[in-house]
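As a warm-up, study this chain.
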Amino acid sequence: MKRKVLILIAICALSTSIIRAQETPFNKISFLIGEWQGTGKGFGNNESTIKSSFQWVMNKKYIEVINDSQFAPTKQKPKGEHHIDKGYISFDKHRKAIVFRQFNIEGYVNQYILIDSLSTPNEFVFETEKIENFVPGGKARWVITKNTDNSITTTFNVAFPNKGYSCFGTNKLKRIKEGEL
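Now compare it with the structure written out below.
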């Protein structure tokens, strides 16, 4: 009887360690892996179309993020506008934090950190730790809301010095291609 109990305990311990070994720091956001497209509103313009890609790179050590938005023409910009940003999501082992470094065609470089205390299982709040080439003391917040497995909303909020956040723009995206998990 004792032998059976010991074998059962050993199996449970081994199963738990195998499950933990398969977990990665990115588990909570891995649903993003794939290609997305949709529409946006705001961003200093009325409407846009957007394509976004979240892909594993470098042996799944990073998630590469690419956003490409085409803005509709306006009176101020009769040819419309084209926005591109690219970046990488990484895991800082020392801080035990997910970090997103984003490079924008306009010359801004944002370093965000995922704020666990503001996030939920379906909403992920990234706040800037630092921004290059923006108003000194300004901040940005990028929020990803998982509506369904194949639908997300991203919101970009900006705060100028000594002011609260205000919504700069929102994108509604649908998955068009799943990525390799």
